[in-house]
Amino acid sequence: MTPYPATLGVILAGGLARRMGGGDKPLLMLQGQTLLGHVKQRLAPQCGCVILNANGEPSRFIATGLPVVADSVPDHPGPLAGILTALEWTARNQPAIEWVVSVPGDTPFIPADLVERLHAARSTAQSAVAYAASGPQEHYTTGLWPVALRHDLRHALTVKGMRRVEDWAKAQGAATATWPIEPFDPFFNINTPEELDAASTMLSITSLLSRRFGNDGCGEQEDCDD
Known about the structure:
Blueprint: E1 7-12, E2 29-30, E3 33-34, H1 35-43, E4 49-53, E5 68-69, H2 79-93, E6 99-104, H3 114-125, E7 130-134, E8 137-146, H4 150-158, H5 165-171, E9 175-179, H6 193-213
Parallel strand pairs: 1-4, 1-6, 4-5, 7-9
Antiparallel strand pairs: 2-3, 6-8, 7-8
Helix pairs in contact: 2-4
Pfam families: NTP_transf_3
Binding site for Mg(2+): 106
Protein name: Molybdenum cofactor guanylyltransferase
């Protein structure tokens, strides 16, 4: 049993990956596994279940075994729409879960204590939401969101025209949980071929440390109702 409320995980995979030549960036390979596979492996043990927010033909993600949920608002307005989609999907399909954590599909090193520390941050600050930071960098799309705010978020997107996750998070008085950036940033994201190469080196270091300390960061995950 986790020391925090039941939480659904959503992996945001709606970007166009222009700097990587287009296509689905989360399906790029990193040491024999897709970026999406690495993210799922780290996120799943922390969540009751995990879904994937992606638009277009869902069959291209069939190997993940995750429910694929397209944006619930038109015209692909960005990651804020993915968060809204996850909140609304959870309310319909997992009504017992009151929290959603979001992570980008190109961050293969998210920490094993991500969900626990985000819950601790929002509880300590008595805030409705929380997001991650590392060193001086703030990572608004890596955040914790209450399902109860889905109506407010839909209004912000469709009526106010809000597009930035940062703007909505700060409007809710978001708390912040901060991680160190040594030996490397756990929220390192991949946008270029050079960063993919760097991630391979980082993964080798992570694997070495995991073997040394006997913790592979894996665990069991319940199935989501689709």
